Amino acid sequence: MPLRVFNTLSGRKEAFVPVTPGKVKMYVCGVTVYDHTHIGHARANVVFDIIFRYLQWIGYEVTYVRNYTDIDDKIINRANKEGVPFREISERFIREFDLDMKALGLELPTCQPRATEHIADIIRLVDTLVEKGMAYQAGGDVYYCVEKFDSYLKLSRRTLEDMQAGARIEVDERKRHPMDFALWKEAKPGEPFWESPWGKGRPGWHIECSAMSMKFLGETFDIHGGGKDLVFPHHENEIAQAEAATGRQFVKYWLHNGFVNINSEKMSKSLGNFFTIKEVLSRYDCEVLRLFLLSAHYRSPLDFSDQNMAEAASGMERIYGTLARIDEALAGKQAETSSLSDGNPLNESESELLEKTESLLDRFKEAMDDDFNTALALGNVFDILRCINKVLGESSVPSEKTVSILAHFRSDIREIGKIIGIGISVPSAYLEKIRGDRLNRLEITEEEIIKLIEERASARKTRDFRRSDEIRDLLIAKNIILLDSAQGTSWKVK
RNA sequence: GGCGGCGUAGCCAAGUGGUAAGGCAGAGGUCUGCAAAACCUCUAUUCAGCGGUUCAAAUCCGCUCGCCGCCUCCA
């Protein structure tokens, strides 16, 4: 089945056919660098990172451009507040953004242009629009004339009348139409500026993305992404600018990710309910956050809450718990993955496992081909983990056949991990880390635990179960759970 | 007011015409000295409600109710 994507422009899923066969050109709106990135940025960037990786995995040569908006009113405001040059603010938060994206495990886009590095391209584009009569100068500002662009608002499928019906009336004498937006803004005294045909000023918010995306990807390219909130006005205005300038279709497929809510409320600075990526990653492992973000479809709203994150953490432990068992079973064995179905007949659960293992990548592809359905893809993975646990639980020593199947699975799950960034750690190390993190929050040291376990072991040897249970209860009271097995007693933190 | 989306088990969630994936939580069982882990079984005759189309609907259409987003900076 070919890839299908939900295109905001048409409001439906469409077969994905790139402009140039075999190649995908993709642009995603990055951040305005004036503050720390939050969980909403995490979602948008994780989603498009996975789309980027998936497109490459299915064989496309992908050019992925993600910009930094490094000149903007909000940056200037913050700079004024701190009494520093605007570049100090933008540089600082570009660094922070890069660190956060790295911490989330994202790949670098093909290029990450900055608005201030493309002022000449921006001026050229504004100039073209003025020449074509699509924009007009008003003082030192230049505005885009929305009424002259026939298909304005086609992305949100609204009309200028619709928009104004509920809009606040904000009269700006210099605008010919209230919906006209700034392409170029005159610099007020003390503000950063660049020389232009209209005097000293800076670009408006939307023009940089039209200019930079076309510069790197051409006048018509395949995918343009961003959060749902960018549909209007940002993307609508990008279309207006680009298509009026070139007379061609700007973007073929518009992809928009849903919002992250906090306890069912919209995240916003005024409500004070937003979480930065740094805060979240200090409390949860990066893969836990990714599992949470990918557990719902990228277009759905997603509710960030302690309970939902705790569920993701449990899910992650389940994944690594099983992967660790697999690695144990495979340790020191040379599995012949090429000969899965000859030799002794498989029992029922082994057959089921074989079938699910052999179809795993196909089912992964099928899920991802359906508008990047990561939730379904993850469901398939959990399903097969259950099968594996079942097979491993049936005998203490897995058969050679089972080992082969597991080796096959292990290799495929690594392949999937390369795209979704989940299950890519060394399982024993992950579990160890989780245990360590939790242990740090308890009032008991590892040495004390091990000592108590040893004492319990000797008590059990002499069948002194009273003392043995006493020790176990003591540890349970401290959130330490003991796991007895043939190999001895291990422990984990609740 | 206009435009758009959503409503699937206690919670999260997939499923857009063929008879309800998966996760978390819970109950019973196997195992265990007892537990835990793991496994097995169970937990939605039903998809907000009502009506319609169809051999067949959670899926399509209409209406009602409820929630949310956008229309202003925002991932």
Largest sheet: 4 strands, parallel
Assign the CATH architecture of the largest domain.
Answer: 3-Layer(aba) Sandwich
**What is the 3D shape?**
elongated
Average residue pLDDT: 91
Integer tally of domains: 3
CATH topology of the largest domain, which one? Rossmann fold
How many beta-strand segments?
Answer: 15
Percent strand = 15-25%
Structural class: alpha/beta
Characterise the protein shown here.
The protein is an alpha/beta fold and 494 residues long. It folds into 3 domains: 4-280, Rossmann fold (3-Layer(aba) Sandwich), CATH 3.40.50; 306-429, Up-down Bundle (Four Helix Bundle (Hemerythrin (Met), subunit A)); 442-493, no CATH class. 49% of the residues lie in helices and 16% in strands. The chain has 16 helices and 15 strands. It has helices at 39-57, 73-82, 86-103, 119-131, 160-165, 207-217, 231-246, 277-283, 286-294, 306-330, 348-369, 374-394, 400-420, 427-439, 446-461, 465-477, and strands at 4-7, 12-15, 23-32, 61-69, 135-138, 141-144, 181-186, 201-203, 221-227, 251-257, 260-262, 265-266, 302-304, 480-485, 488-493. A 4-stranded parallel sheet has the order 4-3-9-10, with helices on both faces. The chain has a 4-stranded antiparallel sheet with strand order 5-6-7-8, with helices on one face. The chain has a 3-stranded mixed sheet with strand order 12-11-13. β3, α1 (39-57) and β4 (61-69) form a beta-alpha-beta unit. α6 packs across α7 (231-246). It is elongated. The mean pLDDT is 91. The structure holds one RNA strand of 75 nucleotides.
